[in-house]
Design a protein that fits this description.
Helices cover 30% and strands 25% of the residues. It is built from two helices and four strands, in the order βαββαβ. The chain has a four-stranded antiparallel sheet with strand order 2-3-1-4, with helices on one face. The chain starts with a strand and ends in a 24-residue tail after the last strand. 17% of the residues are buried.
């Protein structure tokens, strides 16, 4: 399934900046960053549960926001991209 993960972490304190780095680091393990706080991820339910639990342990529910958008398996017809940073094939090979 294709999942869009977005987050907004309050960075007014050093603890908030640390949480922001931790959230981004976790998301990189599961998907492709497409904007500063937006990741596109192709995953099954087990991976989804894993990343959700990891992120919920990091964020401060009183100060931060975390959103998951479930676009399903037929996501190609639900995503349009315009502008800079050309799109990629989320199920293709990523070379680092």
């Amino acid at each position: 399934m294709f999942v869009l993960i977005t987050y907004d972490v309050n960075t007014e304190t050093s603890a908030g900046r640390k949480r922001l780095r931790q959230v981004a680091k976790q998301c990189v393990n599961y998907g492709q960053r497409v904007q500063n706080s937006v990741f596109e991820c192709v995953m099954d339910n087990a991976k989804l549960s894993q990343v959700k639990n990891a992120l919920l342990k990091i964020i401060d529910l009183e100060k931060d926001s975390l959103r998951f958008y479930y676009l399903g398996n037929n996501y190609q017809t639900k995503v349009e991209h315009f502008g800079a940073k050309p799109s990629y094939d989320p199920e293709g090979v990523i070379v680092i």
